[in-house]
Write a structure and sequence with these properties.
It is built from 14 helices and 20 strands. The protein is an alpha/beta fold. It folds into 2 domains: 101 residues, Urease, subunit C, domain 1 (Roll); 314 residues, Metal-dependent hydrolases (TIM Barrel). Helix 4 links the parallel strand 11 and strand 12. Helix 1 packs across helix 2, helix 4 crosses helix 7 and helix 7 runs parallel beside helix 8. The protein binds (4S)-2,6-dioxohexahydropyrimidine-4-carboxylic acid.
Length: 438
């Protein structure tokens, strides 16, 4: 018999439901699913007792920092971080140096990721040349190179005619979609955190909720006009959710993601001036957080996306008005969601897994690559084994990303990824935690 791996004693959660099942993996696939499997003499046996086995997680928003900023993270280290977090596929963002606005760069990212072999990567592409916002990129050529998401993430495209033109092209391409970093440039100019009580107390310029809502509203109208599929990147406030609901009622093809940080944290964290909590869009009020949590629990939010945004210490250990925005998240997103949403009973485990796996897989057309599908015999063995109750302390020395700007560092989180498999090969095992000394 070919060498195989048997996962014993766990519970499977996928789109078909939750059930007890043992799985045998061989030749890159799930070859056997049964109540009880006799592994035989040659199989590697993984004890999954007390664990859930889920289709590999899929991240809609990962910043890999390559090309350009390899000291911060590389495709190698970023995708290793993804595997550590239970992800088998990620969509990488185009705000690198140079930015991903040419088909050769899309291919380069995808090729480097394939060589690293930690997880599948689908490079997104910029929607404007140089992410400058004034000229659409060659959408058809970028699509042919493999891009499905078109976005200038990091900044919004403010020229409505450019967005319209991109959407008109995207509407003709199967599986393609437009995603926007929705923050009105003029309204956020000079702003660093949410505009509100905390920004006033700290005497620092804020970024108002209206900056997000204005761009989302405009884009939803353009999506309606053009028929393009539209995805709201990192929604941070109740107003955005209201706009998405209204657009859905009008028949607009729209999906929306939220980050674990916007679900777990609020602007209150910034009172001490710690730039680890600085990100764009900024952490908002408790009321916005409550609306995001409710919408996730109701299934109105399609996906939880990490917005893994590594930055070196020297760019984060600065006063708020000088520090870079963003935090790493691939290794901690699942645990943050389990700790903040599932443990307190705000959302069901199944809802959180859906938002981290099969729902985002469909948004990015990564289901076509074998991600997020039901764990049945014959399916590609892209999956994660999670202990939903294991408590662990986040120690950035044990995380794979080269950067340590994670506000959960030092915190005890609940729920740990024990193993990740990509096409049957182990890409992460908790037994291989990089040591603090190493
Ligand atoms: O906080 C953020 N950082 N938000 C983004 O959209 C971009 C990201 C980055 O690239 O650092």
């Amino acid at each position: 018999m070919a060498p195989s791996t048997v996962l014993r004693g766990g519970e499977v959660i996928d789109e078909l439901g939750t059930r007890r099942a043992e799985l045998r993996l061989a030749d890159g696939h799930i070859v056997e699913v049964a109540n009880s499997i006799d592994p035989g003499p040659d199989a590697d046996v993984i004890d999954a007792l007390g664990c859930v086995i889920v289709p590999g997680l899929v991240d809609l928003q990962t910043h890999l920092r390559e090309p350009g900023d390899g000291h911060v993270d590389t495709i190698e280290s970023g995708t290793a971080a993804a595997a550590q977090g239970g992800f088998t596929a990620v969509v990488s963002m185009p705000n690198t140096t140079p930015c991903i606005d040419h088909p050769d760069l899309v291919r380069m990212v995808n090729d480097l990721a394939r060589a690293a072999a930690h997880c599948d990567v689908m490079s997104s592409a910029a929607m404007s040349v140089g992410r400058a916002g004034d000229r659409p990129t060659d959408i058809a050529a970028l699509y042919d190179a493999g891009a499905r998401l078109f976005t200038d993430d990091g900044t919004a495209v403010m020229d409505s005619a450019v967005v319209r033109s991109v959407m008109e092209r995207v509407a003709t391409l199967p599986g393609a979609y437009v995603g926007q970093h929705a923050e009105d440039e003029a309204l956020i100019a000079g702003g660093h955190i949410n505009e509100g009580v905390v920004s006033a107390e700290l005497g620092i310029r804020g970024r108002p909720v209206a900056a997000e809502a204005i761009v989302v509203d405009r884009d939803l109208r353009l999506a309606e006009l053009t028929g393009a599929r539209y995805h709201v990147l990192h929604a941070s406030c109740a107003q955005t959710l209201d706009l998405v609901r209204a657009a859905r009622r009008r028949g607009v093809d729209v999906s929306v993601e939220v980050t674990p940080q916007h679900l777990a944290l609020t602007e209150e964290m910034l009172r001490g001036g710690d730039a680890l909590y600085k990100m764009n869009p900024p952490l908002r009020t408790t009321a916005d957080q409550a609306a995001l949590r409710q919408a996730l629990a109701d299934g109105q939010i399609d996906a939880i996306a990490t917005d893994h945004a590594p930055h070196p210490d020297e760019r984060k250990s600065l006063p708020l008005h000088e520090a870079a925005p963003g935090m790493t998240g691939l290794e901690t997103s699942l645990a943050a969601a389990l700790t903040e949403l599932v443990e307190p009973g705000i959302a069901a485990l199944e809802t959180v897994i859906a938002a981290l796996s099969w729902k985002p897989a469909r948004i990015a057309a990564l289901n076509e690559w074998g991600h997020g599908g039901p764990l049945v015999a014959g399916a590609p063995a892209n999956l994660a084994v999670i202990d939903p109750h294991e408590r662990w302390t986040v120690d950035t020395a044990e995380l794979s990303s080269r950067s340590s700007n994670n506000p959960f560092r030092g915190r005890v989180l609940n729920g740990r990824v024990r193993h990740t498999f990509l096409r049957g090969s182990s890409t992460w095992s908790v037994d291989r935690v990089p040591s603090a000394a190493g």
